[in-house]
Amino acid sequence: MNISSPHLLTDLEGPPEIEKLVNSFYVKVRADETLGFIFDGIASVDWDAHLPKMYAFWEKVLFRTGSYTGNPLAIHARLLPLTEMGKPQFDRWLELFKQSVDELFCGPNAEHIKNCAADMANVIYSRLNNVPNPGTDPASLTAEQRARYAAYGRTAAV
Length: 158
Ligand code: HEM
Hints:
Low-confidence stretches: none
Number of helices: 7
Largest sheet: none
Helix content: 55-70%
Bound molecules: protoporphyrin IX containing FE
Radius of gyration: 16 Å
CATH topology: Globin-like
CATH class: Mainly Alpha
Mean pLDDT: 90
Shape: globular
CATH architecture: Orthogonal Bundle
Order of helices and strands: HHHHHHH
């Protein structure tokens, strides 16, 4: 039996699932040729501090709870003089994030968190590199994103 078959997976329901997702994502990131050295070499991330921060970050994104306060754009801008933070890096980041979600969860929250990740990756990438946000092309939006942006009263990500 294929235990990762989507119909056997359940959705992200709260903080325990967020922790599971974040842990799994950073195992992949640290082993990745494109991204691993940025975290463990360039930034020398303190994982005991970073992981709880990321649990709180994603909890806030998905459930509007959790204690995250911070400025991700400024934090990533600090990396810019030290390493490439371009399209290949952001594409790989998003690929690993989506992979982590799809291996563990299935449902509306799973779809929503992948779309939020894509939106934020587009914003951070475009701001850091001073290029147009790739997510503002309406053709690149999923139906879920289109509905969400319509509810916000705007047509695309910032
Ligand atoms: C190329 C892609 C990315 C790389 C290489 C990267 C790398 C990093 C690193 C090294 C840190 C730790 C910095 C430190 O502690 O000094 C960090 C923090 C963080 N990253 Fe990323 N990141 C990427 C994309 C993203 C994206 C797309 C998001 C959001 C969806 C994100 C959200 C965060 C958050 C919330 C923090 C914590 C910021 C804080 O300390 O308040 N990252 N990232």
